[in-house]
């Protein structure tokens, strides 16, 4: 008995799924579900393909209260730019959580991941940043540098943006893009210490393997979201900062202790206490990370299958409601 | 830069991909690649969804010499029959092994898995069964009972088929189907010991949790392929048989010691020797399982991502060559 599957391309998804407060709320609900303890989220399936300088990751999660669950496949083939192709691609498949039937195929080339990753940054900023942010800083100059700032601005409408990158020209281009997009003054800042000193909210978005944000730079009233590390050898925040902050929170303990900033702090022997709180605990009010405007908070995001399930379920409803995508009987 | 993705439904795949010697050769080449040692095949990603009595498995493998690699998603939702839906569904995604770009989506509802699983049985029979098989027996009465016999007949054109099942009526129906399909006499056999005694080739295709084929029943000139067990609690062959046989071979040691007949033999304390040979070693001539017509051989198949990559790569070429499937720019 064939059933209808919606097939939606990146081009169509970009028309329908926007980085807005509705997406932030959906991703926030995924973190709340994660903290409920009823989620099923297996470890990431990861396959390296040395002969092609490639890798592929598969993530999934089942969340209570969601009508579907997503399986996301993310290939990264790092010689692709030599062929004029992007390194990152991929798709999401949405299955009915009741029957396991395929409901939608999102040929998104990573677009939904970009959006749900930025939305998680907004969830972190909403619950952890000081209530008033005048200046936001971003370290890194790629797609997520732009999107993280755009997402954070939805929940903390700051008045200035500082951008640091190893390449000043790229930082300037990124600042120009942000300024044009948000209508907020943005400029490149060559000194990362000064960027942190002047900001109340800092997002790190780099693939750094040695810390780019030092513990000495922490100051009262600072929130940091570190979203760049997703492999054991990556590290953006000096491990001592995790202990020095008033509160350190992560998206998923089991991932962050292997792939996130927490991994580096544990490896350095600096994190010896009990496991940290998760962002979902903060969303649900089970853990209060910030008790005053002067507290210093850090949120470590490695990216979860729960976010994929949340955005895929949301995207499917949006696409059906506006009639976008091809339907195929299969 | 959009590229074209082929989307092929089960209905179209059934027109193009047949259980024939070409498919057997393709799956044999996957076993050869597995034995070459260069394969990348991560452990299966498995997620249980207790609230829906469901589960989902994800398999993948990269094989040297294949232009693509497949990721297969297999949901099993066991309350679906109450809704008039099949329990098993799923799809395969074929990626370019060079760029990681999606090349094809096979909305096959498990059809390609059925074919590649049966083809593996033919590979086992080709390399392990006595050269002359007069009677083939099958235990189990489902889709694989029919397909395994059909596949084995491609490589050992036997003259008679015996079918045993817990439900005699189902065994009779299965025998009738096989007889109509292969134009070979087939009948139900109520006594499994007699089925084994009269057969030179036996395939077990059940989800049994207690052995249905006893060690005492082994006789000279017998080959057994056990393909039913794919979970740690399943067991078709009495563990003592694995040791009593001249040679026991498995598709993948790392899987069979967890999910296959080998798992039961290890748990029973009966398998204490070195790891067994893999089917790929036999294909490549690295290991000779059968030295005479009187030897007794057993092959344990749990199903590998390598077979999925092989059949998906093959299906994509076939579909492109005959122009079947929809192309979508994504």
Automatic annotation (TrEMBL), chains A, B:
InterPro entries, per the entry: NAD(P)-bd_dom_sf, ODC_Mu_crystall, ODC_N
TM ranges: none
GO cellular component, one term: cytoplasm
Highest taxon listed in the record's lineage: Bacteria
PANTHER family reported in the protein's UniProt record: KETIMINE REDUCTASE MU-CRYSTALLIN
NCBIfam families associated with the record: PRK08291.1
Similarity comment text for this entry: Belongs to the ornithine cyclodeaminase/mu-crystallin family.
Full protein name: Ectoine utilization protein EutC
């Amino acid at each position: 008995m064939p059933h209808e599957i919606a097939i939606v391309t990146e081009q169509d998804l970009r028309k329908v799924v926007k980085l807005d407060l509705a997406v932030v709320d959906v991703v926030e609900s995924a973190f709340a579900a994660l903290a409920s303890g009823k989620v099923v989220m297996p470890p990431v399936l990861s396959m390296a393909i040395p002969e092609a300088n490639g890798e592929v990751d598969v993530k999934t999660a089942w969340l209570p209260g969601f009508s579907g669950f997503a399986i996301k496949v993310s290939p990264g083939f790092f010689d692709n730019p030599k062929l004029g192709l992007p390194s990152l691609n991929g798709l999401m498949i949405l299955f009915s959580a009741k029957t396991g039937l395929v409901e939608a195929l999102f040929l998104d080339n990573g677009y939904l991941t970009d959006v749900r990753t930025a939305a998680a940054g907004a969830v972190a900023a909403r619950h952890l940043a000081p209530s008033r942010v005048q200046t936001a800083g971003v370290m890194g100059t790629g797609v997520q540098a732009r999107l993280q700032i755009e997402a954070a601005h939805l929940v903390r409408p700051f008045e200035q943006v500082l951008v640091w990158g190893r390449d000043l020209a790229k930082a300037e281009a990124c600042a120009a893009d942000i300024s044009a997009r948000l209508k907020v003054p943005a400029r490149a800042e060559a000194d990362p210490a000064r960027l942190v000193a002047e900001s109340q909210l800092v997002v790190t978005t780099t693939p750094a393997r040695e810390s780019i944000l030092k513990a000495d730079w922490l100051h009262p009233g600072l929130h940091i979201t570190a979203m760049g590390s997703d492999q054991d050898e990556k590290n953006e925040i000096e491990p001592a900062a995790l202990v020095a902050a008033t509160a350190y929170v992560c998206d998923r303990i089991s991932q962050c202790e292997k792939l996130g900033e927490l991994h580096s702090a544990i490896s350095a022997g600096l994190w010896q206490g009990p496991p940290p709180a998760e962002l979902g605990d903060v969303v649900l009010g089970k853990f209060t990370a910030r008790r005053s405007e002067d507290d210093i908070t850090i949120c470590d995001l490695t990216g979860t299958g729960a976010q994929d399930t949340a955005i895929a379920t949301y995207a499917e409803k949006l696409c059906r409601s506006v009639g976008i995508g091809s339907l195929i009987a299969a």
